[in-house]
Write a structure and sequence with these properties.
The chain is of the alpha+beta class and about 600 residues long. The chain contains 17 helices and 23 strands. The radius of gyration is 30 Å and the shape is globular.
Amino acid sequence: MHAYRTHHCGELRQANVGDTVKLSGWINRKRDHGGVLFIDLRDTYGVTQCVVDEGSPLLSTVEAWRNESVITIVGQVRERPGETANDKLPTGAIEVYIDEATLQSAADVIPFQVAEDDGTGEDLRLRYRYLDLRREQMQKKIRLRNNVTSSLRRRMIEQNFQEFQTPILTASSPEGARDYLVPSRLHPGKFYALPQAPQQFKQLLMMSGFDRYFQIAPCFRDEDGRADRLAEFYQLDVEMSFVTQEEVFETMEPVIKGMFEEFSDFTGTKRDIQWMPHIRYEDAMMKYGSDKPDLRNPLEIVDVSDVFARDDVEFKAFKGVLANGGVVRAIRAPQVADQPRSFFDKLNSWAQSQGAPGLGYIAFADGEGKGPIAKFVPEAAQAQLKEIAGLEDSDAIFFICDQKAKAEKMAGAARDAICDALPEDHTYAREKNVYKFCWIIDFPMYEADEATGKVDFSHNPFSMPQGGMDDLENKDPLDIYAYQYDCVCNGFELCSGAIRNHSPEIMAKAFSLAGYGQETLEKEFGGMLNAMRYGAPPHGGCAFGLDRMVMLLADEPNLREVYAFVMNGQYEDQLMSAPSDITPEQLKDLHIKLNLPKEIKTEAA
């Protein structure tokens, strides 16, 4: 017989009745029923009920073992009496009567319950992550992550992609976020950077003649933490040669759709997968107030600036903003005019919590517009509102007025808040049990800084402008579009990508419009620029966030719930006590002296 087990704890069935077996695992629960001790023995495969019978010499010994101790038992499989069988447990038809029991590792008193969710806070869970990971739901999510990764890898290889590993220690480059820097001992005063993405390396692989690349790539960005963003994350990184934008979409959609179909019932409810038509960036910002719209929400935003610019409309609060170049956005909320006043008051309070003065509205009932703004909007203007927004009797319309960028952002948030405020059975409530994907396309190549007016890249600096050199030389930079695209699903950006710039002349011109001279370009991107000069194929690709896809499949709002080991929201690893102080000797080896704020003191300082 094996030293530790003949079966795992989720394996035994009625066919095993009468067998002598050996099991090893953790004590999940103990129950004393009048001198008969029941132990739920757990491993990663499941749970088996084990019994120390009345009068057994093992009773007092086993009774003293704490939950989460690791034990090995030998015993006989018996059928549970009919009334005690548990049809919710795969092993629920049997139990094992213990003849021998060995304590492999005794557990101290545990800081929180493992067998059930006792509401323990995140900090404690992360400090004792190895205990948290023993929980059934956590194990399911970590296995899901493994299975998703395997599925993606298999699907990419089936499409003739080759898997590569690119460097972790590399050069710092301006890619939109702060780099994590690593000092070099052998080159005093110089630093490596951890890659924000394998962007340059995957393009260099295309220039090296490889046609289809992928990698489950680790990426590092020194950004502030939030629920859907971590300092260290993984992405399905992809690049292809001699492809158009549409061919990238046609290649990746079956991979992502197939993977989501494979795991869409993870939470117990099968969810539909729908791939919606492409949406231009400008249309997404207009209709949804976001470049990552949740298309399960059927509400749309319209521009009603012309209505409030009319001479017969006397709403001064909006007039003043319009006179300064602002806009008025509106959201139709169908069939809510009969909602109680509290429905509208709660939305008004929500808007105030976002820093807005409120959320003005007009509700239409019995052919008449009512609400705090209605008296300022005469009948002819209300008729124009109805035409623009498609309003019907019993509908309401909510308004946001501000400068364009701020109005778009607030209208997007309001669109979701209004949808969330609708009753669950409302015709226009957010759809359930569906993943709605789409590609956002035609991103502007450049954007202007609101404060300084300086032109810079809006998305990926290595993208090809849609009009090539002709656009760069003859158009206002803010009117240039790039072959850039995002894939979004249910309000999350899952992927960014682009058709790349493969011409050194176009690259130089594109960077010069953003204020990067040739000297800077050669210094920061000399390796890739030189490679282009020796023949670069047209190429493009994208990167899908592995963590966000697992988060969606697991129906979890927080990325930290789908990682085995992870930092908290302040980027502290409470299990390993990182970041930590280093010794003066280590600093000396690296030729570094600390210059810390006065209130921060470390051992090394």
